[in-house]
């Protein structure tokens, strides 16, 4: 398992542990998709970092939120996912501190953008 797969698995488990309604609503297929989505989140974080552009990840988050809300997810679910992802990255032995700090900043920017769309600013 790659380092990103390990992190994506950890985050997926936490998401479904924290919100038991997700497994009822989306089943095993939804859980598998959450894992895949987290791999995409990590790929976008890496690309944004490689290009030194928080806008790449923020634009991705806004685009993804639009898709997810159309299928019945809430923006808060994506925000929670990003919070859990940030915590997993900060605590991962597979990610060095400098890399985790950049990812954390990009995740915080995306969370702020999503909350601004909701009219909230709890995680600035």
TrEMBL record:
Q: Which domain of life is it from?
A: Bacteria
- Designated name of the protein: Uncharacterized protein
Species whose genome carries this gene: Cytobacillus horneckiae
